């Protein structure tokens, strides 16, 4: 019989690429991870790993087993959901992850509704960039989370996760009132070719989106400031420090001195959870509360 905990380590090795990364994700030592994978290989009876110098990679059999592991883990999530549904009321801890603009706008009313309707739930929120959400869900540091991508920077689905759409937002170019001249009939991004830019921290999705939008318009942005909170971004724009891309949630009640020009780009937000967990009552309750708060905050 194959050990599920060891299968999870193999799956994570396929995703993360190194023993050290798997060890860090699980708070193990690299030696402990290697020992567990060696034990899994003995259980399987076929080679699962190939060693080349100091690197290790999965054999074809190891890759196939890692893919099967996603199905096994999803079945366990579904079984857990079935047992939870048999309980009289919802209880336990739910770890919720969201990006800053959602934490400030959509999440508070959802938390209020969840606390009112399901007082047995202990709700814990973590603010994080969407690029970190898949790993956090996979490692069980989160149970449900908001993640997003942009139509100009689509993200491939993660085989370990399921999700449901929540929100599709317009993206704006925010400019200072006395700054970039925007021809109403022209392309706002091209008009900002020579402007200073305020973009997200390198490695964040917002940073990637800004670079992609400018590259598509035929130039590289001249970055003056890095900021990840849209309230701070808009304050910098209002101070004449540059232009920035801001999605609809981040552009609620902009400060005086800021003009917003809608772009063709859209940010797409989804509610994500581990594959197989959609029918878990706590997950379903979170999805329902988030949809209700989103509809109230941004009515269509």
UniProtKB/TrEMBL annotation:
Domain spans labelled HTH lysR-type: 2-59
The keyword Transcription regulation is assigned to this record: yes
Gene Ontology cellular component terms for the protein in this record: protein-DNA complex
Keywords: DNA-binding, Transcription, Transcription regulation
Protein name according to UniProt: DNA-binding transcriptional LysR family regulator
Xref: InterPro entries: LysR_HTH_N, LysR_subst-bd, WH-like_DNA-bd_sf, WH_DNA-bd_sf
Keyword Transcription regulation: yes
């Amino acid at each position: 019989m194959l050990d599920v905990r060891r299968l999870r380590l193999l799956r994570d090795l396929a995703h993360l690429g190194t023993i050290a990364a798997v060890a860090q994700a699980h708070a193990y030592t690299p030696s402990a991870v290697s020992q567990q994978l060696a034990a899994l290989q003995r259980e399987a009876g076929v080679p699962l790993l190939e060693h080349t110098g100091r690197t290790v990679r999965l054999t074809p059999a190891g890759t196939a087993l890692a893919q099967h592991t996603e199905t096994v883990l999803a079945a366990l999530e579904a079984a857990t959901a079935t047992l939870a549904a048999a309980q009289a009321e919802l209880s336990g801890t739910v770890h919720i992850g969201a990006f800053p603009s959602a934490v400030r706008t959509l999440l508070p009313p959802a938390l209020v509704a969840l606390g009112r309707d399901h007082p047995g739930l202990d709700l814990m929120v973590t603010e994080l960039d969407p690029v970190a959400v898949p790993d956090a869900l996979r490692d069980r540091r989160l149970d449900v989370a908001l993640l997003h991508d942009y139509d100009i920077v689509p993200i491939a689905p993660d085989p370990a996760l399921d999700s449901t759409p929540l929100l599709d937002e317009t993206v704006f170019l925010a400019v200072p009132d006395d700054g970039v001249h925007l021809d109403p009939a022209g392309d706002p991004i091209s008009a900002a070719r020579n402007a200073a830019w305020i973009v997200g921290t390198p490695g964040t999705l917002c940073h990637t989106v800004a670079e992609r939008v400018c590259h598509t318009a035929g130039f590289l942005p001249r970055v003056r400031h890095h900021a990840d909170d849209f309230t701070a971004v808009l304050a910098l724009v209002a101070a004449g420090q540059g232009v920035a891309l801001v999605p609809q949630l981040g552009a609620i009640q902009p400060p005086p001195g800021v003009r917003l020009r809608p772009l063709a780009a859209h940010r797409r937000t989804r509610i994500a959870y581990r594959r197989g967990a959609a029918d878990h009552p706590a997950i379903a309750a979170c999805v329902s509360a988030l949809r209700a708060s989103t509809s109230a905050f941004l009515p269509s």
